[in-house]
Amino acid sequence: MMFDKIIKLLFIILFFAARLQAETILITANPPLPVPNFMNNPGFEEQVEFDRVIAYWDLNGVDEDDGLTDKAAHSGKYSFKFTGKRGINKSIRQRSVGAKTAPFPLKNGMTLVSGAWSKSVGAIPGGGAYGLSVKAGAYRPSPSFDKGTHDWAFSEKIFVLDKDIQALDALYACYYDQEGAVYYDDLYVSYATVQLNVKVLSPDLKQVCLYDNEDRKIFDSGILPRGTNDYTRMEKVRAQKTYYVEAEDYTGKVHVRNYPVLGRKVDLLNLYKEGKIKIDSNMNLTRKEFPGMGAAGVFDGLIEYGNGSYEGNDANSFFTVKLDRAYKIARIGICLKPRSVESAELFVFGNNTWRKIKDYSYASMQSVNYIYLNPSEVVEAVKVSITNGAGLKALTELELYEESE
To answer: According to DSSP H, which parts of 221-322 are helical?
Structure first.
């Protein structure tokens, strides 16, 4: 009788193990999604114009009628406005694009893409160039915009490198020999394609399909023979999209996995105000002229000097958050000291172990930098250790995103 019970228990364990295995879907990409924008200050939000200087941008041929404006924007608060003048070529330029922001070398044969959003009020067909111009050794195919009046429109152009380069020489946003006015916002240069790797484990897998965020089918395995327990597929896909896999088994169950997993934001600010999360930090500087200086400022979403946790000592500065419970974290956002350079290390604690997930070496951050955990990890605490920096060391923002699937 006892033997029969043991056999029955083993059968139940094996059955549920098989069902659990059917949900094992792993998606990775090289480079990982989402790919970074190689541009600095692509939306003109990081520094308000001062004495006709804009962070990371050179101005060419512009006058008092051109510059940052808050009268129109595709996203955020600002865009850059050109006012057309016949016979005058106006542009803004960013040099060495990708020198510090591209995490991989830019190699011969690599496919890149440049793009932007723009709005036009009165650009004329008989006028000069209205679009981007990308130089990487030579000038590359670049996006342009329709001449005439139109609301915010998007344009992009893919190009292939024909040699190894350290960075793109320059990207220009142009408005040459024109009339009317145009606005530029949200410019980018990045990888155009990535290698997507899909692996599905199941003892009775029937069919696997990959879709993009527009529900366009990228591939379909077709009906797989019974007994298939491991399906792998590699596919080159556009880098500016998100994807999901549907895997059906022979019982009719369909399992879905998104990539990348963006997650649901954990409300750290409210948890901190309610005393549900604990802070251990030596970054406790306060100044009355900066009301956002302190632990709460790390969670409030504001990216500006004097907001967040600061430390003036030469010793290693640290900021540790002990969460109210274990979260399955898909994404972490961090911003160090804005408009400055700092070195730091990012750690997570889960399953009784601290693990370093990111090194920042002399990083210059003007916005939140995101790290994607694939697969998502159980996290009970997060620590940022700032190892080097000029002047006061600072942690401006920390965000956590819980897997929402």
So the answer is: 268-273
pTM for the model = 0.72
User: Going by CATH, does the domain composed of 58-191 fall within 2.60.120.260?
Assistant: yes
What span, in angstroms and rounded, lies between the C-alpha atoms of 193 and 168?
Answer: 17
The span from the CA of 369 to the CA of 341, in Å, is 14
Which CATH architecture is the domain 264-402 placed in?
Answer: Sandwich (2.60)
| DSSP secondary structure, 5-40, as one string | HHHHHHHHHHHHHHHHHTTEEEEEEESPSSPPP--S
Report domain 194-259's class.
mainly beta
Q: Are 364 and 100 in contact (CB under 8 A)?
A: yes
- pLDDT (tens digit per residue) in 156-212: 999 999 999 888 899 999 999 999 999 999 999 999 999 999 999 988 999 999 999
> Tens of pLDDT along 356-368?
999 988 887 777 8
List where CATH 2.60.120.260 sits in the chain. Answer: 58-191, 264-402
CA distance 140 to 136: 7
Q: Indicate the helix (H) or strand (E) that contains 138.
A: strand 138-140
